[in-house]
């Protein structure tokens, strides 16, 4: 920045700032702008003579809505805004960042130290900071015969773990030597990440050829697939899911995962689109198999039903849906879970 | 001296360098991204290693994005990031600074 330029926090709840911000983003070809309140944790802007000439925002560890006025392009302001965003995040203790952008901006981000994670014709995903995909893959537990075994994988949020999830895993164990169960790490569901992970582990503890692993930032996270957690339009979901699938392919190659099992999805539109993207992207290297949902008596088991029963205080009705470990946990923590719902935690989402 | 947490110093502006310092299991790694890597890469790495040695730091990872910083800038940024990562901002190691 030169002396006539000034870095400021942009409060997008103020209409005056929102208008300038939206105008700059529209001018630079960023479409589908959200209305107020904008889904970001913070937003910065660089001004010259009261005019907004560059902006960037973040949500958790993801950089978003980055734009530089075309009259000032050439790299300098771009580097300034990225620097400022990184400094803001590091002050909050975040040292690992992602950016989700158009393929033409890939190089600009690589020049400031970002590394490519996945690419499709519509979008790229990059990361920077003190953690990396390679470190994540390195810490995944390995088998003795990793290179020769038939290995499959399942990614689940398990909010909470039901007999439906267990059925999916047992189906996978019958068709492969070994199953990795990746539990979504993003902590935005009714059950916390720690609770979900523990209930998955407990519910599968009798199966010897299953290993439960945290999915980290690399599968179904705010970075790879934000629309799993936030409502979005169909085309956004489509290109995010395609990127998440590309990234999974990269991880699978290094872990010798040959098959991915999915639960059939009759309820959630987002998950159904995700399943479609996986089927389109993963083969031929990885085969995709969709397992129909398990039915208890006449009802299809789903974690959504379980969450609704918690909300309504009718947990006896879902006793047959979940393993005993999950049921006991819900019973003991019913008040806490209901309090979370009352505070605004969604029951209907994922 | 021991790294307590990851820290960062510097910016991506022209003539500056952004350095992130974190603790790792294995031997020290220096990852440098620089437009002048060919001309000055070795010199920059040597300078960084010398400073790490002065502070007695091993098993660390440096991720640096250089935008053409001079040696004095690199040294200043690295000392700052070391002090931040070791929680010594208010208690600098005067002997090394001298």
From TrEMBL, chain A:
Keywords: ATP-binding, Ligase, Nucleotide-binding. Pfam families: Citrate_ly_lig (PF08218). InterPro entries: Acyl_CoA_acyltransferase, Citrate_lyase_ligase, Citrate_lyase_ligase_C, Cyt_trans-like, Rossmann-like_a/b/a_fold. It catalyses: holo-[citrate lyase ACP] + acetate + ATP = acetyl-[citrate lyase ACP] + AMP + diphosphate. Its EC number is 6.2.1.22. SUPFAM superfamilies: Acyl-CoA N-acyltransferases (Nat), Nucleotidylyl transferase. Residues 151-330 form the Citrate lyase ligase C-terminal domain. GO terms for molecular function: [citrate (pro-3S)-lyase] ligase activity; ATP binding. Acetylation of prosthetic group (2-(5''-phosphoribosyl)-3'-dephosphocoenzyme-A) of the gamma subunit of citrate lyase. This is [Citrate [pro-3S]-lyase] ligase.
Automatic annotation (TrEMBL), chain B:
InterPro entries: CitD, Mal_deCO2ase/Cit_lyase_ACP. Its main location: cytoplasm. One of its GO terms (cellular component) is cytoplasm. It is found in: Cytoplasm. Keywords: Cytoplasm, Lyase, Phosphoprotein. Belongs to the CitD family. Covalent carrier of the coenzyme of citrate lyase. Oligomer with a subunit composition of (alpha,beta,gamma)6. HAMAP family: CitD (MF_00805). This is Citrate lyase acyl carrier protein.
């Amino acid at each position: 920045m030169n002396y006539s330029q000034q870095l400021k926090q942009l409060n997008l709840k103020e209409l005056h700032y929102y208008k300038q911000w939206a105008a700059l983003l529209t001018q630079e070809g960023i479409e589908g702008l959200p209305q107020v309140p904008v889904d970001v944790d913070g937003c910065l802007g660089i001004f010259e003579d009261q005019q907004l000439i560059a902006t960037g925002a973040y949500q958790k560890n993801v950089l978003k809505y980055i734009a530089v006025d075309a009259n000032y392009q050439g790299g300098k302001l771009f580097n300034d805004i990225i620097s400022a965003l990184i400094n803001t995040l590091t002050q909050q203790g975040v040292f690992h960042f992602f950016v989700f952008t158009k393929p033409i901006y890939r190089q600009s981000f690589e020049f400031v130290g970002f590394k490519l994670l996945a690419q499709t014709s519509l979008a790229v995903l990059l990361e920077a900071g003190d953690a990396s995909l390679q470190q994540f893959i390195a810490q995944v537990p390995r088998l003795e015969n990793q290179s020769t075994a038939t290995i499959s994988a399942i990614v689940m949020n398990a909010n909470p773990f039901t007999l439906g999830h267990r059925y999916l895993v047992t189906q996978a164990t019958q068709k492969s030597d070994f199953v990795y169960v990746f539990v979504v790490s993003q902590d935005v569901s009714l059950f916390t990440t720690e609770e979900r992970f523990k209930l998955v582990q407990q519910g599968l503890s009798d199966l010897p050829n299953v290993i439960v692993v945290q999915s980290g930032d690399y599968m179904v996270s705010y970075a790879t697939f934000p629309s799993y957690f936030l409502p979005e339009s169909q085309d956004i979901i489509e290109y995010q899911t395609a990127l998440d699938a590309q990234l999974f392919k990269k991880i699978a190659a290094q872990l010798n995962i040959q098959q991915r099992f999915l639960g059939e999805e009759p309820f959630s539109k987002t998950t159904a689109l995700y399943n479609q993207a996986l089927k389109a992207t993963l083969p031929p290297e990885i085969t995709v198999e969709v397992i129909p949902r398990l039915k208890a008596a006449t009802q299809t088991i789903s974690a959504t039903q379980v969450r609704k029963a918690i909300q309504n205080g009718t947990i006896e009705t879902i006793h047959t849906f979940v393993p005993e470990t999950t049921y006991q946990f819900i019973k003991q923590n019913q008040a806490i879970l209901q309090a979370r719902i009352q505070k605004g935690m969604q029951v209907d989402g994922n | 001296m021991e790294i307590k947490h990851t820290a960062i110093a510097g910016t991506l502006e022209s003539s500056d360098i952004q350095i992130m310092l974190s603790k790792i299991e294995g031997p020290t790694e220096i990852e440098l991204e620089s437009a002048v890597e060919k001309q000055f890469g070795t010199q920059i790495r040597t300078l960084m290693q010398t400073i790490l040695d002065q502070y007695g730091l091993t098993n660390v990872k440096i991720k640096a994005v250089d935008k053409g910083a001079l040696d004095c800038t690199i040294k200043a940024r690295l000392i700052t990031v070391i002090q931040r990562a070791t929680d010594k901002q208010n208690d600098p190691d005067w002997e090394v600074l001298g």
